From TrEMBL, chains A, B:
Native organism: Mangrovicoccus algicola
Annotated Pfam families: HxlR (PF01638)
Molecular-function annotations in GO: DNA binding
Lineage of the organism: Bacteria, Pseudomonadati, Pseudomonadota, Alphaproteobacteria, Rhodobacterales
Span of domain HTH hxlR-type: 15-113
Keywords tagged on the record: DNA-binding, Transcription, Transcription regulation
Protein name per UniProt: Helix-turn-helix transcriptional regulator
Signal sequence segment: none
Cited SUPFAM superfamilies: Winged helix' DNA-binding domain
Length: 124, 124
DNA sequence: GCATATAGTATCAAGAATGATACCGTGGAA
DNA sequence: TTCCACGGTATCATTCTTGATACTATATGC
């Protein structure tokens, strides 16, 4: 988060929920985390996995998650460069969340996607 | 979502994750859903639960979630008006996600908040 | 000498999300 | 007669987020 969209300070009952979601609500974060669940990936590997994500955004999201302690960045002093991203221990603790999201999506994706091959809101 | 921040159409492997999170990434949505887990609430009850949320935003988020089929809006023909919000059946299926978020937040909230009773960034 | 691959960065622009504030109708209570 | 509660809406402004595009350094292979 460039600047916390979900505040981390108030503590109404929904606070913890807010806190947790605040860490994964970047446009690509959940997807990145999901892919990292399967193992370490290099920058360009991530780019290939997360299509349509510009390098700027990818760097952005990775840096934010690194700052949040969710992922680890390992740089190899090589040329051409080699940088590996992986889940930190903390990041791994998000696995239940990610799996719950995945499960829900798998179960309900038909609702707003391709029940009959196209989305109703899709003009084509 | 005024306009889907998380696209609902691509289908890279992280797709379902994206789809699920797309429905709850409004600034207040997860919190609203969390409170509705405990039962039906009226508009102003929600306002009291979700502090700092302007009526405009509350309406906004509620309408979006209604459009997404997550919540149900029941209007009573009374004066003064009475409107009740509750989780739809679909909304209820999000409970595992919400609980996972809550569990994570509860376990890790100390990381970025009040490890010693107050936030260091809190002026008071 | 030249192109290639890697892991980014810089700059600018657009678009989306959120906030602040004021306002609405109505029926009942004071 | 005036005020309040309820469930919002309207309008404007601001801030946050995201995208597009071009660009960098350097060792290696051709």
């Amino acid at each position: 988060m460039a600047k916390a969209r979900h505040s981390r300070f108030d503590c109404t009952p929904g606070c913890s929920v807010e806190a947790a979601i605040g860490l994964i609500d970047g446009k690509w974060k959940s997807i990145i985390l999901w892919h990292l669940l399967s193992g370490t990936l290099r920058f360009n590997e991530l780019r290939r996995h997360v299509e349509n994500c510009t390098p700027r955004m990818l760097t952005n999201q990775l840096r934010e998650m690194e700052a949040d302690g969710l992922i680890t960045r390992k740089v190899y002093a090589q040329v051409p460069p080699k940088v590996e991203y992986s889940l930190s221990e903390l990041g791994r603790t998000m696995e239940p969340i990610l799996r719950a999201l995945k499960a829900w999506g798998d179960a309900n994706i038909g609702l707003y996607g391709k029940p009959n091959g196209h989305d109703p809101r899709d003009p084509a």
